[in-house]
Each structure stands twice: as C-alpha cells, then as structure tokens.
Amino acid sequence: MQATTHGKFADPAVEARFHETARRLRLPFVRVYGVLFMLVALAYSIANPLFLHAHDSARVAVLLGAALLLAGAYVAVTFWPRYIEQPALDFAALLGISLLVGLVNLILLDELIELDDDLHAVGTINRLAITAFAAVALAGRPRLFLLWLALECGVFLATVMSIQDHGAGFWYAILSYVSGALVMIAINVAIDRSSRGAFALSEALEAERAKSEELVYNMLPPAAVERIRDGRMVADSYADASVIFIDMVGFTKLAQRVSPGHLVELLNAFFNHADRCAAEHGVEKVKTIGDAYLAIAGGNVASGNSADTAIAFARDVLAGVPELRAVAGTDVGLRVGIHSGPVVGGVIGATRMAYDYWGETVNMAARLEGTAPVNGIAISESSWLRAKDRASFGPPHVEILKGVGETCVYHATPAVPAAEPLPEINWVA
After folding, report:
1. pLDDT confidence tier of residue 292, bands split at 50, 70 and 90
2. What three-state secondary structure class fits 5?
3. Distance, first Cα to last Cα, the chain
4. Given the DSSP bridges, would you call strands 376-380 and 334-347 parallel, antiparallel or unpaired?
5. Residue 115: how many CB atoms within 10 A of its CB?
6. What pLDDT digit, counting tens, does each position of 235-288 carry?
C-alpha cells in the first residue's frame, strides 16, 4: 500500500499519477454535469419570460446565455488532451458560472420581492447545485475546492445581504447555504479519501500483478504464456537448434567435503554466471539439474547460427571458472557438451509448469559433456559442420557414447588460468 503524508501520497510521482487517474475517471461525470447545467439554464431561459418583467427577462436571458456559453466551453475544453493536467480550468469555469448564476439570482430575488415572495431558498439551491458540481470536479484538490468555496460564499453573501432584509427567511437561507456547503466539503473529502484508497489498492494490486507476471515470464517464454492463457496446448518443433549441457567436475566429491550452505553458494555463483552469459549471447536457459546447466540456442530465442552462438556462450561460461574457484576455496572445473539438430519443446502438466525440450539432440549434448576435457568443450560433428569458428577445435576422434555408439567428437579447451594454490579451508558442516 502506498504511504501517505497529510492526506497525500509520499511519493510525488504517485501523487501525480493519482490525480491524473482520478480526473480521467471523473471526466464523464463532469461532462454529464456540465450538460445538465446547460439544460437547466436553457429551461430557465424558456420559463423566465412567463414570470418576469420584460427588462428583467432580457437581463436574465443575457446572463443565462453567457452561462450557457461558459458551460459549453467548459465541456468542450474537457476534450482537450491536456485538460487532465489543468485543474485550474475547473476552478475558473465553475467560479465564472457561479458568478453568473449569482447575478441571475439577484434579478430573480428582486422579482420575487416585488411579488411578495421572499424566497431566498431559490438562490441557495441554485448555488449549492453548482457547489456540488465543484465538489466533484475538484475532488482530490481540497485546498483548491476550499478556496473556490470561500470565494463563492463571499459572492453569495455579498449579493444576498445587500438587497434583503435580515428577517427569518434570510437567516434560514444562510443556514441552508452553510449547512449545504459543509455537506459539499464532506462530499469533496469523502471522494478524495475513497479515491485515494481505491487508487492505493489498485497500485498495490498492479505491483503484485507485475511481480507475478515477471515470475511467469521468467519461467516460461512469452509466446507460451499467451497460449496457456488462451487454453491452447504448447508444443513447438525446431529443426536446427544447438543444445548446451554444462556440468561441474567432481561435484559429488565436493558435496561430501563442504557444508550445504557453501555448496548452495557455489552453485548459485555458477548458475548466476551462466545466466548472465546466456542473456548476453541470446541463449535460452532451459533448466538446472543438480549441478548441471541446460541451455539452448535457436529455440524460443532466435539465433542466427545456433552452433556459433552456443560455442561463444560456452567459452564465456568457462571464462568464469576462476571466480568459481574463489567461491569454492578449492579447485573446480566445468565440462561442456554441444550438439546441433532438431528438438521438440513445450509445456506439459498443469502444476509447476516449465518450458522444456526433448529429443535425441538433448540426450546427445548430455552424453558429449562427459567426454569433454576439464574446462573444455566437446561438440558433435553436426555442430562442427555448422560452426564457422573451427580453428580452436582439434582433429576429430571417435568416442563411444552410451546408447549412441561410436560418435565423431571434436574437443576444444579454451584458455582458463591454472588453479592457483589455495589455503586449505575446512567447509565441512
């Protein structure tokens, strides 16, 4: 929930966004109110000749005509794109309308006095109707509304007190006006508070939705998320992708020597480093399996030459081995296996959903990783043929892979600094 100070949001940016949102939401009501006022003013213009003297009727017609024009201009200006940013327009327009209505009321009161109908309530009701308009239009700006109300009250008192005796009717009119004004202040404050509460709740919900959205898009590709939302099955086929399988050397023995907390710290450093390299090279992280990192180039994330992208990514990951040694406090190494070919990707299940890849290409990359030298890369012949940078790979040699048989493999060992002697650190839990 957004913090507030003295009725305002503490963050000026949030306060400005609140005013913009609230004014946009009130805009239809402001326009309807303006149109209703114009209709009432038009009705007065039609009815006045029936009850007023000719010269007073003409004066009222001019004043009501001016009020109609001002109200029409006010409604029209609400369609101006920058109207939302200018609350002073409401202040000025409503004050002008109030002044014109006050002058009309003076003439009507004079006529009623001549007719021995001392009805101050007529002017009071008219002015309170405009005050209600201002209470809505200037909601969220209590100081501006109070200033408007003070000026309007001054106009009302000046016009009524100057021409009327101070009998019971006068004081009842004043009482009605003051009580009505207090109600309008309460309405203005209530609209402001309720609007701020609703806005703060909306902001909090939006923030939570954004977090959830970010989490979902962190786990699933955007295209897959859209299909899941539409209730469609997520299944894709990629004819030419390169799968990268990276594993930590001697992890099982290392896990027996170090504490669980330090082991998690080491894996976290490894995976975070691989994530940064993946983001830099446009490689898609698929998942982690124990101490292994599975990624793919040319899947959901487009790649020009998936083999070259995969190899460049692998080299960058291996370049971070010295940092992993520093975190581990002992010698650690990585092996990388890369194979290029067709894969199938998709989302299976309805709980703990994740976008995964399947196929012989994935299995082959995992098998190749086991043949790679420490801090080196093993690629299949299909990846070697696709790659433009072959100079760093030595001559082919035959490896026997489980479930595959004899396979032509190319090895490369990027320049990784030799492990410096480190002091013996006891990480045992």
Report:
1. very high
2. strand
3. 42
4. parallel
5. 10
6. 788 888 999 999 998 887 888 777 888 888 889 999 999 999 999 999 989 888
**Directed axis angle between helix 87-114 and helix 121-137, to 10°?**
170
Look at residue 176 in the predicted model and tell me its pLDDT: 63
- Which residues make Cβ contacts (< 8 Å) with residue 278, sequence separation at least 6? 284, 285, 295, 313
Contact between residue 327 and residue 265 where contact means Cβ atoms under 8 Å apart: yes
Answer yes or no: is pLDDT of 426 > 80: no
Tokens of 174: 């004043």
Which residue, 345, 381, 384, 386, is CA-closest to 362? 345
**For the chain, what is the radius of gyration of the CA atoms?**
39
Q: Which of 280, 285, 369, 270 is nearest to 320 (CA)?
A: 270
Q: Report the DSSP beta bridge partners of residue 401.
A: 405
Task: Please tell me the total number of residues recorded for the chain in this structure.
Answer: 429
H-helix or E-strand spanning residue 147: helix 142-163
Q: What are phi and psi of 94, to 5 degrees?
A: -70, -35
The HSE-up count of residue 127 (CA atoms within 13 Å, CB side) is 34
Comparing CA positions, the residue from 73, 185, 169, 168 lying closest to residue 123 is 169
Mean pLDDT confidence for 345-372: 84
Q: What value does the mean pLDDT of the chain take? A: 79
d(CA 106, CA 53): 14
Tokens 């894996």, residue located: 267
Q: Over the range 384-400, which residues count as b (16 or more CB within 10 Å of their CB) and which as e?
A: bebbeeeeebeeeeebe
Is residue 188 pLDDT above 50, yes or no?
yes
The single-letter DSSP state of residue 267 is H
Q: By the 8 A CB rule, do 205 and 317 touch?
A: no
Is the whole model's pTM more than 0.85, yes or no?
no
